[in-house]
Amino acid sequence: MTDPDSPRPDETPKQLFARVSEQLSRRQMMGNAAKAGVGALALGGLGAGTAAAGGDGAMGDDDDTTSDDGTDGEKPMGDPSVADIVNYALSLERLEATYYKQALASSGGAFDQRDIECGEVSAAFGVPTLRNSTYQELEDVRDHELFHVEALEGVLKKLGAEDRAATKFQFPDGVYDSPESFVRFAAVVEDLGVAAYAGAAPALAKAELALVDGDTSKLQVTPAALGIHSIEARHASFLRTLNRQRPWAFGEGVELADQAIDDPKTMEAVLAVAGEYIVE
């Protein structure tokens, strides 16, 4: 399986995110315009008048600059490719992997097992076997992220696409000041990753289906991405526990639907947060 629409070689990671975000936003806007057009035609058929359907001469008017896709004559932007979305996911996975590597002493980071398990971070666990394995669990999280990085790099190679994902990061001041500050920001990063995968999944599935002629049995990248997404959700739940937080939204006035179904985040929303930590 090869992806003919690989990322542009002169793009920085942030430019890649911005382009794909614009593509997704444009396609959403076009979809909304199409729905509005169908509604207008329906109203016209019910006797609402020609204005609802565009007025006299709206169809076939040589002076009308609005194209069929509702973009005022502009050439519509294509959907993001599989490689675009994989590069997006890879940037986030590298961000997470880098964050954990710099935090844990076993990978040259700031905190060793004693720092983690003899302080407030693991005090949430009353059972000694849980408390005394907190550091190892965090190592597992780090190793998962490193594996995700390798897996997504492999996907790009298989697609014959260039790796344009971010490689350098700068985290907020103070996140490595203490084990507590480390796990607080880790929870933010994991929550963001979960929402990012959920937001990108529809576009990824659409792009990959186009490569395999709609044969769902041939999908490979999308199922793998969904598998990563579920592990990221497990990470987020674990980190929330270390922060004495519930794994999901709760409290007075929170609807059951808000507890039972996570909201996905658009690439634009994710970039608004993650982009602050991406250097290149």
From TrEMBL:
Q: Which Pfam families match?
A: Ferritin_2
Q: Spell out the Acidic residues composition-biased ranges.
A: 59-71
Organism, scientific name: Halobium salinum
User: In which domain of life is the source organism classified?
Assistant: Archaea
Indicate what this protein is called per its UniProt record: Ferritin-like domain-containing protein
Residue ranges of the region described as Disordered? 53-80
